[in-house]
Structure formats: structure tokens, C-alpha cells
Write the C-alpha cells for this entry.
Amino acid sequence: MAIRSFFNVFIIMLLTYTLNACTQNLTESFGRNITMSPSEPSTNKNGIPQMVQPAFAQFQDIPIPDGATMNMDRTLILGEKESWIGRLVINSQAQQSNLFDFFKYRTSQFGWQEITSVRSTTSVLSYSKANRIMTIQIQSQAIIGTQVDITMSPKGVPTISEPVTDPTFSRNTPVQLRPVEIR
């Protein structure tokens, strides 16, 4: 009976070790920003998922530094070509200061007009082009490399307020505020 219990424990430990090794191998592969494309999963002849490097080909309206990799876990893109909006997150081995300079000088070559820039622990650059606004945040990673968050959004359109036609309204009437309960 003791031998049978030992054998069962041994089999469970062996299966746990094997499963852990497989999981760690997948984590190492996918943790290097090499992920399967969510839109077109690729498999080999045995049905095993293939690793696909995300491409930057659809981002032709912004500069992308050489050697950058896309962080697919944090990237969310809607649209395509020069009308996409959302957040593109890239990782680079370049230093934060070099990436700041890269974006500061290369982005205008793509037709973007700088709104503002701040160089700090988390550097921020903002640009405008046609009907879109782009914000670039550059931050050094804890271990090695730099993360760049590029947020693209539609430019807000100013609205023309309608004149007040209520005869009881006066510009000198004090505004009454009431507390709002947040739950």
C-alpha cells in the first residue's frame, strides 16, 4: 500500500513538473512580445500555434524606432492606415532620452505639428494633425529598456453655444450647486 501511495505521489509530481515546464516555456515565448496575431491565428501542420511578430506596417503616419516591439497586451487599435485611433504600446532597448529626441525630431517629418513637450521621468510629447491628436509618453522600464505609449484620438470640435432665450435667466443670477453623492 505504501508503494502504491508513493507511486501516485510520484506520478502527480511528475505531471505537475511537466505542466509547469510547458507553461513556463509558453510564458517565456509570449513574454518577449512575440504573440499570436489576434485577428489571424496561425497554426502549423500539427495544429500547434505559431508565434507571429506583430508588424508596424499599418502605422505609416507615425515614426517607429528600429528594433521596437509591440506590446500586444496593452495595445488597442481601432481603424487603419491614417485614420486609426487608440493606444499603441511599444518597447525599445533604446534609452529614454534617445527615444524622446527621436520622436521630437522625426514626428514633424510625418506632417504632425507639435503642441507641447515635456522631458522628465515620464516624458510627454503632444502633436496635432488634421482631425487627430497624438500623445506620446516615454518612460524607462524598471529593469531594461523603455516603454512608449502612443495615444491617438480624434480632435474635439468646438461647439457653438446657443444663446439663452429664457427671460428669467440673468447673467447676474448666482449659480446654485448641489452636492452629488458618489457611490
